[in-house]
Amino acid sequence: MRILVDLNRCQGYAQCVYLAHEVFRLNGQEALTYEPNPDDARRLQVERAAAACPVQAIAVARVDGADRGETS
Fold first, then answer.
1. Which of 14, 20, 55, 64 has the fewest beta carbons closer than 10 A?
2. Contacts of 42 (CB under 8 A, 6+ apart)
3. This prediction's pTM
4. How many CB atoms lie within 10 A of CB 11?
């Protein structure tokens, strides 16, 4: 799985951090950092975090087999 966060769109609401703290982190008050290629075992957490983003700044893509390049 591959994650891409539009940091220009991100407003630091940190909903992703609460739902997938192993993948998303806040540095200071508003600077989001994240693991761009987390383990697939975290897929459900990451998909929930992406869905919870109020500004829809998180994109999740599959990178396995025929699904390469498709967002889920």
1. 64
2. 1, 20, 22, 23
3. 0.82
4. 11
